[in-house]
Design a protein that fits this description.
This protein has 283 residues and is α+β, with helices and mostly antiparallel strands. It contains 5 helices and 15 strands. Strands 8, 9, 10, 11, 12, 13, 14 and 15 form an 8-stranded antiparallel sheet that branches. It has a 4-stranded antiparallel sheet with strand order 2-3-4-5, with no helix packed on it. A 3-stranded antiparallel sheet has the order 1-7-6, with no helix packed on it. The longest helix is centred in the C-terminal third of the chain and has 19 residues. The protein is globular and about 55 Å long. GO terms for molecular function: methyltransferase activity; oxidoreductase activity. Keywords: Oxidoreductase.
């Protein structure tokens, strides 16, 4: 077998490689953890994925409107998203974005509220409301997940359905090294949360594909407008991500200087270290 450069923790995880809507009977090529793989639909319209170098079939699962695979022996299940099962929610596949940076960098950016007023100006934030209030970090599921709770930020347009500025409550969830979710105040029903999932496909150590999927309580907005809104947000992030150096996420203490607003980033880096994750990092 050709040597695989990823660590064992990552090899045993499930990774998204495609939205289900992109599956075709003609095989599609992609990369996962430095490996060349193909995926698609077989003659019976069942999804498949193959490691090209080893000529072996890979395990696949269809979940959260995406195709998932694992290069090693799966150590657990794909993270559950309870809200995805609620019948009044809309599932919004926001497409696929190739980003010239590591998967951990993309996750860390997703967890950061401090950049809202400066990168997503007049959408997710605006001056002078730039302060990130103190929030709580929690480990859940016996340390398998890390959460940030009690997060609040004033947003001029928290979602497409928002008609005015809103003091938005956030919950951040890291459910896997490259699987993260955001639960945020739903403008249509403030007692519930909209859910935005970001599944990051680590193609190589310094190049990734991001797969954002939303589970929304919004029966008014056109699907195309919802997709455009989220794509606008992510494309603004991509500019920042591709200019960060180093592209791999530093895990050693003191490599980058955090502030109080970076507590979730610090927790995520520590959590990766504790789990033995080194892929896409400078550990």
């Amino acid at each position: 077998m050709t040597q695989i450069t990823a660590d064992e923790t990552i090899l045993s995880d499930w990774h998204v490689i495609s939205p289900l809507s992109h599956l075709r009977t003609t095989p599609t090529d992609t990369m996962l953890l430095d490996r060349h793989i193909t995926f698609g639909l077989d003659a019976r319209d069942n999804p498949f994925a193959c490691d090209v170098a080893d000529r072996r079939a890979l395990p696949v699962r269809a979940r959260h409107d995406c195709l998932w695979t694992c290069l090693g022996t799966p150590a657990g299940d794909i993270p559950a998203i309870d809200e995805a099962l609620e019948p009044d929610r809309r599932l919004v596949d926001c497409g696929v974005f190739t980003v010239r940076t590591s998967a951990p960098r993309i996750v860390e950016n997703f967890l950061d509220m401090a950049h809202f007023p400066f990168v997503h100006t007049n959408i997710l934030g605006a001056e002078p409301n730039t302060e990130v209030a103190r929030y709580t970090i929690e480990l859940r599921d016996d340390g398998k997940e890390v959460w940030a709770t009690d997060c609040h930020f004033f947003q001029p347009q928290a979602a497409l359905s928002a008609t005015d500025g809103l003091d938005t409550e956030y919950l951040y969830r890291v459910a896997g090294p490259f699987v993260t979710l955001l639960y945020k105040t739903c403008p249509a029903q403030p007692g519930r949360f909209d859910v935005i999932a970001l599944f990051v496909q680590p193609m190589t150590q310094e190049c990734s594909r991001a797969h954002p999927v939303m589970f929304l309580v919004d029966d008014v907005s056109p699907q195309a407008n919802l997709i455009e809104f989220q794509q606008t947000i992510f494309l603004q992030d991509r500019i920042i991500l591709e200019n960060q150096r180093p592209r791999r996420l530093p895990l050693s203490a003191g490599a980058e200087i955090p502030t109080m607003a970076d507590r979730m980033s610090v927790a995520y880096r520590r959590w990766l270290r504790d789990r033995g994750v080194s892929y896409g990092t400078t550990a």
